């Protein structure tokens, strides 16, 4: 297998190991042909799984979309917007999302929840309550979701868009926003502490992110203050919805800036358009409303080029732990924008193929037949992640880490492995 090239821009993602393969009898499997194949990336290539929730629950047939989704991604984000998850108090959508999380997990996909606390799309019934009651219910909500999804979801956006959270005074109906009201009373840092502490109380091993679209110094200052206050985060979430154009080199600058805290940087919400761009003078993306926003041949070619640039740059940056694309399909996409990798009618765009050539091509080890040496050793090299080694009707699993290391694996008969 091809050894790691130290000059490669993704060398830090790769590993190699001299693996001693033990047969089913426990002895080294010498001078035997084995097949090595990659089964999962360590790097999180994510996408929202919203479109497959009904399919996972057997209430819709999305098998073609599911196949396209699973052909690229290894991290699914499921929606926990409180106002949609529990529009009627006491009737959360727990069972349906648990089944969706199980469906992804059974297919080797990690699942992330988004978000536990947010002032937008929050439960409307919360607004009429006094602030102390709101705080109690927010705390209970965080504990409940993390507890109910323990073992199914191992990562959450603990709190979303805290930089502007205290400033949302009123909803359009004039009723004060209860979560923003609580954020003003507690302050941003204590609001983050609330979300993180309650989540860890339910699952001490859960991974928790702070997530925001405001990538100014205000966000940097908030992260500093949160960490100085002793609140433990597991990563920094950076949103990059590029409805107004590709950000190019700014992406690397963001990875540098937000990586200085010593935490993994997660590009949590990525969108790249395959149609006309939103005018540059729009400040709040939600304010741009059009009757139709089609994908175009020119836009699709541009999207494919920019997707490849985006992923090459960020996978090549050592601070970045994940990239999550915000929608595989144009059908029902946020703001109606043509951001998907497949069109509304299910046909793949060039951008899908461009990503697949990277994730499951250039950065992937396809089934490869090699022969062990006299000591039963074989070299495994590739992107860090999970691999399978098979010989005849037996199989072993290997987790390849970055760098170079020895390893031993024992083959198990295929029937026992199942």
UniProtKB/TrEMBL annotation:
For this protein, the record's InterPro entries field holds: GH (IPR017853), GH10 (IPR044846), GH10_dom (IPR001000)
For this UniProt record, the keywords arranged alphabetically read as follows:
Carbohydrate metabolism, Glycosidase, Hydrolase, Polysaccharide degradation, Signal, Xylan degradation
What would be an example GO MF term here? endo-1,4-beta-xylanase activity
For the biological process aspect of GO, one term held by this record is: xylan catabolic process
Q: Does the keyword Hydrolase apply?
A: yes
Q: Which domain of life is it from?
A: Bacteria
Domain GH10, residue spans: 59-358
The record's catalysed reaction(s) read: Endohydrolysis of (1->4)-beta-D-xylosidic linkages in xylans
Record's keyword annotation contains Hydrolase = yes
Task: Please provide an example of a Pfam family that matches this protein in its UniProt record.
Answer: Glyco_hydro_10
Q: What is its EC number?
A: 3.2.1.8
What protein family does this chain belong to? Belongs to the glycosyl hydrolase 10 (cellulase F) family.
User: What is the official name of this protein in its record?
Assistant: Beta-xylanase
Query: Which organism does this record belong to?
Result: Microcella alkaliphila
């Amino acid at each position: 297998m091809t050894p790691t090239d130290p000059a490669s821009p993704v060398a830090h993602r790769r590993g190699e190991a001299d693996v001693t393969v033990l047969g089913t009898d426990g002895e080294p499997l010498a001078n035997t042909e084995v097949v090595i194949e990659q089964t999962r990336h360590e790097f999180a290539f994510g996408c929202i799984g919203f479109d497959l929730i009904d399919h996972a629950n057997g209430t819709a047939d999305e098998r073609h979309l599911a196949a396209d989704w699973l052909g690229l991604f290894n991290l699914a984000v499921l929606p926990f917007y409180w106002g949609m998850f529990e529009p009627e108090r006491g009737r959360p959508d727990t069972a349906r999302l648990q089944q969706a999380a199980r469906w992804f997990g059974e297919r080797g996909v990690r699942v992330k929840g988004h978000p536990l606390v947010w002032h937008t799309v929050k439960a409307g019934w919360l607004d009429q309550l006094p602030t102390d009651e709101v705080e109690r219910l927010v705390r209970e909500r965080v504990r409940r979701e993390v507890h109910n999804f323990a073992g199914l979801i191992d990562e959450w956006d603990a709190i979303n868009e805290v930089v502007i959270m205290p400033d949302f005074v009123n909803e359009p109906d004039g009723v004060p926003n209860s979560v923003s009201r609580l954020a003003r009373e507690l302050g941003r840092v204590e609001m983050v502490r609330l979300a993180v502490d309650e989540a860890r109380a339910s699952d001490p091993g859960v991974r928790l992110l702070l997530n925001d679209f405001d990538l100014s110094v205000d966000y940097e200052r908030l992260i500093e203050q949160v960490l100085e206050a002793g609140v433990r985060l597991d990563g920094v979430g950076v949103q990059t919805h590029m409805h107004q154009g590709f950000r190019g080199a700014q992406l690397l600058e963001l990875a540098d800036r937000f990586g200085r805290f010593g935490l993994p940087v997660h590009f949590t919400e990525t969108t790249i358009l395959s149609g006309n761009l939103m005018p540059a003078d729009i400040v709040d993306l939600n304010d741009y409303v059009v009757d139709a926003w089609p994908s175009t041949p020119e836009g699709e070619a541009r999207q494919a080029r920019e997707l490849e640039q985006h992923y090459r740059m960020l996978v090549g940056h050592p601070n970045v732990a994940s990239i999550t694309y915000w929608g595989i399909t144009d059908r029902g996409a946020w703001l109606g924008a043509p951001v998907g990798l497949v069109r509304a009618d299910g046909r793949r765009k060039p951008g899908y193929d461009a990503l697949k050539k990277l994730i499951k091509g250039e950065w992937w080890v396809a089934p490869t037949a090699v022969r062990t040496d006299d000591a039963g050793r074989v070299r495994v090299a590739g992107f860090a992640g999970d691999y399978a080694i098979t010989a005849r009707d037996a199989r072993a699993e290997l987790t390849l880490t970055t760098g170079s290391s020895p390893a031993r694996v024992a083959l198990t008969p295929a029937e026992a492995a199942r």
